[in-house]
Amino acid sequence: MADIQIFDTTLRDGEQSPGVNLNKSEKLEIAKQLERLGVDIIEAGFPAASEGDFEAVKLIADSVKHSSVTALARTHQKDIDRAYEALKDTERPRIHIFLATSPIHMEYKLKMTEEEVLNKSVEMVTYAKERFPEVEFSAEDATRSDIDFLCRLIEQVIDAGATVINLPDTVGFTTPYEYGRMFKIISETVPNIDKVNLSCHCHDDLGMAVANSIAAVENGATQVECAVNGIGERAGNAALEEIAVALEIRKDFYPYETSLILNEIKRTSDIVSKLTGMYIQANKAVIGRNAYAHESGIHQDGVLKNAETYEIITPELVGVSENTLFLGKHSGRHAFKDKVMEFKLDLSEDDITTAFKKFKLLTDHKKEVTEDDIYTILMEIKTADTDIPMYKLEDFQVNYGPENGTESEVSLRTPDGRVVSNKTTGSGSVDALYGTIKSLIDMELNLIDYQLNSVGRGKDALAEAHLQLKVDGQVMNGRGSAQDVIEASANAYINAVNRYLIKNTEEKSVSVSS
Ligand SMILES: CC(=O)SCCNC(=O)CCNC(=O)[C@H](O)C(C)(C)COP(=O)(O)OP(=O)(O)OC[C@H]1O[C@@H](n2cnc3c(N)ncnc32)[C@H](O)[C@@H]1OP(=O)(O)O
Ligand SMILES: CC(C)C(=O)C(=O)O
Ligand SMILES: [Mg+2]
């Protein structure tokens, strides 16, 4: 077993990032990639929070084989029962129970005394242990808790059957020295601490989540909780890729092994970024676009003479490669399939046929089809895997008119198979287009956020639009790509509406059958 267990919370704490809203198939794609990355534990969600979360955790638990799957629960029997229902068929189930231990959380949020928190924790760990072989207990807001109370509580929940004790820095308040000292005190004071794995869970409010996690490891933590691209509540969680690469590059200093397959990092980061719509800043450590670029003359000169003058991480280590050319206009299905299999996605023959058709269409317009383009196509196919009737863009036209406004005409196929059309005017191309689509859909639609990016470089790069749309009061993310920016924008808008239909149809069918 590796010295440090990697507990990935991208699908739970990561999904708590404002505006992130993944559906079941998107969560499954991310979970499978986390498994390929070699994470030890995947926190798949919070089953008691919603039917959608329950379904996603169950799907992941039933599909993932090489990582342990866990789910979050409050100290309520019904949360633990719900987690048990979702996880019971996975090979290595773990429950993750939490309760806050800081004075401010106990007094104002929970309205409980120290003794009540202690007794409830013991009671629920005991209850969970009758159902799960692995029980993780988190003392929420541990870094603002009284250390003597924390030690007393930890000792008792270990006696009740906890196998992992997590000490979260819930509000990103601590510093490396202070957090390390807390782990040291707990390791030296709690008499039965050697029976459990100690875990850290850091938030990045003061920009110290990764440094704090490493300080915890230096002081006895054997599990690190983190999220891909550092996503998570508020400023996010400690970034998995930064912790993994820091431990690897500085192994002279940190002699700890993890079971991560480092050259899967870039692929994992790309999937998470694409599906969550959370873009990665160019200068982000390890996976940012500029992380391996050398701009200034003296640096370029040094790198040409010896790359190690300015490069401590090689791009290959984390799977960053030149965005290589894919196949061309004259490629056949066999060669295409061979190349596509290199992405290691779980693709059916139907998926490959659909992807091949889209690839051929693209080669009609785009001179250079890259791996990124194909990846975008494959991700769209993988995550739109549903029989639920949806809206489809049939045709559109936008006529830019600076004086009388821009005119847009759109034809949509509705979920019940009709084709509806309308023409409206707006203040710009996207405004006009969205106004027309909105007029064709009988729901309350309000655009909250819209972003446009290019996939890859060059004038014929694919455009990728991401947006947030309030659909009948629920905030939905939408994503669309196309070679044309207007078409990508239309696809993203319709995608958000369709995601709403999928979410609500799935939730309805679950509550009818349960
Ligand atoms: C630090 C973290 O990341 S914690 C995880 C945060 N994640 C989430 O909250 C997931 C999304 N949440 C939800 O969907 C909802 O909040 C639910 C379904 C979990 C609960 O919804 P509701 O029942 O409507 O309660 P609401 O969210 O308003 O308030 C939370 C309640 O849980 C209580 N609570 C909070 N933490 C815990 C805990 N660990 N154990 C037991 N009760 C808790 C609060 O005190 C409050 O109780 P109250 O209603 O008696 O005042
Ligand atoms: C639920 C716990 C582990 C959490 O996310 C936090 O305290 O930040
Ligand atoms: Mg957290």
Automatic annotation (TrEMBL):
Segments of this protein annotated with the region Regulatory domain: 392-514
Cellular component, GO annotation: cytoplasm
Recorded metabolic or biological pathway in which this protein acts: Amino-acid biosynthesis; L-leucine biosynthesis; L-leucine from 3-methyl-2-oxobutanoate: step 1/4
EC number: 2.3.3.13
InterPro entries per record: 2-IPM_HCS-like, 2-isopropylmalate_synth_dimer, AIPM/Hcit_synth_CS, Aldolase_TIM, LeuA/HCS_post-cat, LeuA_allosteric_dom_sf, LeuA_bact_synth, PYR_CT
GO MF annotations in UniProt: 2-isopropylmalate synthase activity; acetyl-CoA C-acetyltransferase activity; manganese ion binding
Keyword tags: Amino-acid biosynthesis, Branched-chain amino acid biosynthesis, Cytoplasm, Leucine biosynthesis, Manganese, Metal-binding, Transferase
Keyword Membrane: no
Cofactor: Mn(2+)
Keyword Lyase: no
Pyruvate carboxyltransferase domain residues: 4-266
GO biological process: L-leucine biosynthetic process
Binding-site residues, Mn(2+): 13, 201, 203, 237
A matching Pfam family: HCS_D2
Recorded catalytic activity of this chain's protein: 3-methyl-2-oxobutanoate + acetyl-CoA + H2O = (2S)-2-isopropylmalate + CoA + H(+)
NCBIfam families in the record: leuA_bact (TIGR00973), PRK00915.1-3 (NF002086), PRK00915.1-5 (NF002088)
Purpose of the protein: Catalyzes the condensation of the acetyl group of acetyl-CoA with 3-methyl-2-oxobutanoate (2-ketoisovalerate) to form 3-carboxy-3-hydroxy-4-methylpentanoate (2-isopropylmalate).
Description of how the protein assembles with itself and partners: Homodimer.
Family: Belongs to the alpha-IPM synthase/homocitrate synthase family. LeuA type 1 subfamily.
Name of this protein: 2-isopropylmalate synthase
Organism: Lacicoccus alkaliphilus DSM 16010
